Model the fold of this input.
Amino acid sequence: MQRHLISAADLTRDDAVLILDTAEEMARVADRPIKKLPTLRGRTIVNLFFEDSTRTRISFEAAEKRLSADVINFTAKGSSVSKGESLKDTAQTLEAMGVDAVVIRHGASGAPYRLATSGWIDAAVINAGDGTHQHPTQALLDAFTMRRRLVGRDAGLGQDLSGRRITIVGDVLHSRVARSNVDLLHTLGAEVTLVAPPTLVPVGVETWPCEVSYDLDSTLAKSDAVMMLRVQRERMNAAFFPTEREYSRRYGLDGDRMARMPEHAIVMHPGPMVRGMEITAEVADSDRCTVVEQVANGVSIRMAVLYLLLGGNEPAVAHARTPEEK
Amino acid sequence: MSKILIRGAKVLGGEPQDVLIDGEIIAQVGAGLSDEDALVVEADGKVLLPGLVDLHTHLREPGREDSETVLTGTRAAASGGYTAVFAMANTFPVADTAGVVEQVYRLGQEHGYCDVQPIGAVTVGLEGKKLAELGAMHESAAGVTVFSDDGKCVDDAVMMRRALEYVKAFGGVVAQHAQEPRLTEGAQMNEGVVSAELGLGGWPAVAEESIIARDVLLAEHVGSRVHICHLSTAGSVEIVRWAKSRGIDVTAEVTPHHLLLTDELVRTYNPVYKVNPPLRTERDVLALREALADGTIDIVATDHAPHPHEDKDCEWGAAAMGMVGLETALSVVQETMVTTGLLDWAGVADRMSFKPAKIGRAAGHGRPVSAGEPANLTLVDTAYRGSVDPAGFASRSRNTPYEGRELPGRVTHTWLRGKATLVDGKLT
Done:
């Protein structure tokens, strides 16, 4: 049986809740004087990063080390890996070294799926972000953060996010975070609304299990959580919106807008934040903003995923897609 | 022995007849012909077609002989029942001078598996900036009549207008790769539901349709003829249908893979399905079949695009675009058009031989199967069904989307001017 985590869409509700519950257990490890479990002792995990992401890599590395795995960091930064062979060659080199799992970050959508299904390697594959496709552990840590804040740390155990209303704002078109969150939050019973200028919503979005709105203000009052996505400045040059200021006025979250959210509602951001663009400093620094918690929760979630994929008794995550078309 | 008697073949799918080849020409067609002095080929009710003509083949030579050469490509063509192929200009160096097109033409003649008719580039180096020497290529030994920057669109409207006007002097045609470049920056697959989910850059239908709309209007304005390469969307069909109803001299081709495959296959992220234009939706596929049946789309052309293994055995984003097609085209057409009742075998002969030869002005090809005509013929075992095994391909490349897929029909014999290039499924 294949055991990979490629897409948030591959997780069932029970899989996802098990990961969240396991992450709560893992979080307790962080409160101990010695933050380490022997669970993955003797296992070797490679962090295979074809694209820069210090935050995600460190988060995985911390999770792997807390589970006592042996960690190899492979950063294939730059243009030497512009040719496709290197993914296959690199993977096979790692396989020959007896790697048990590969955590892969890649600029090309589908690269982790290809790695997991092409027969190049036998190791478990964990997607740490591929192109504009998926970033499933990010969605899991976001859901974990929501469950803790909106349901409660202990009360949340075994629970999903049924009935919660989540608004995701910004560059949906280029966002693997948005895709992963829509899939996972829907599976967990939440109602998701995407808010963006029409230029930053993908053609074909109508089949996604969510609502789409072009108007941020009309969604704020009914949101339990508002997740701001990072907007890259180069999008402006590609005419996705006229100016940074216009974007901020229409889709940025400032103090006034935050005040229109329900009292209990939280503000989320996958980071890194562009202060003054999609989010003002006032909002980013408020105690309703969960950015720092999300980072801490990321380690717990990644511990849970690694534990369940590599060390747990029952596979919590099974790859649901068919490997090849018949 | 120069006589060959093909006995009991269903000519264009009709009643079984005997066909006698004498030398390079068809001597007689009729019932109960004498087999004296002739090598007899028992056709057993197989279908006999005029040799197929492909208006859109990439032979890769010169420059990318690791993918394909004129020799391997023409052997693949003969295996697929073709007697003439038009070789696209995007080689290295680009076929934009009389020298390059003559070289390609001559190689085809020397190898003798299939006539190779080079296509000349419209612009120097396919760069879209300066017209190539279209007249010199036409007057060369290769006698080029079809010009295309295929792989790239002639997106500059003025350049396209000039090319259309210029080729009128010698009856040429501009074959357009319709792809608005700005709308397809970063494009990886059809833009729609699947691309949204997979997070792959979208290639919207409108990028093809807007160029076709522009070009048919340009062709009308200057009174020239334009050919649309690998048309792939339902919207494009509507535009071509409108243009023809208006009397505009436009022809269009569809590839076998666009008649069969959809963008749902991209969910496998297997780059064997990566092709340009991309695989579209089921709705598009059905519209293309209808349009080929009713004549809105004139011909089937393979867009045979060989690539070495390493250019496909990688992640989707890094992979080359294209599929091989010469050896499976007729089977796919049988599956999608004949088995479905949309076309009979006479229709297949029309769309895969008569019309492509006419559009490309390929003398001696696309002729009726009757006495006095050049003996360019293809014999097809239409009752055959089997799964596709790329290991047996004559093409140097194996990037077929049909590996392991069961398809009907098998070309058993091909004759080029009376000379067998394929006998019992084996190349001579």
Summary: Residues 205-222 of chain B form the longest helix (18 residues). Chain B touches chain A through 27 residues (CB under 8 Å). Chain B has eleven helices and 19 strands. Residues 119 and 162 of chain B are 18 Å apart (CA to CA).
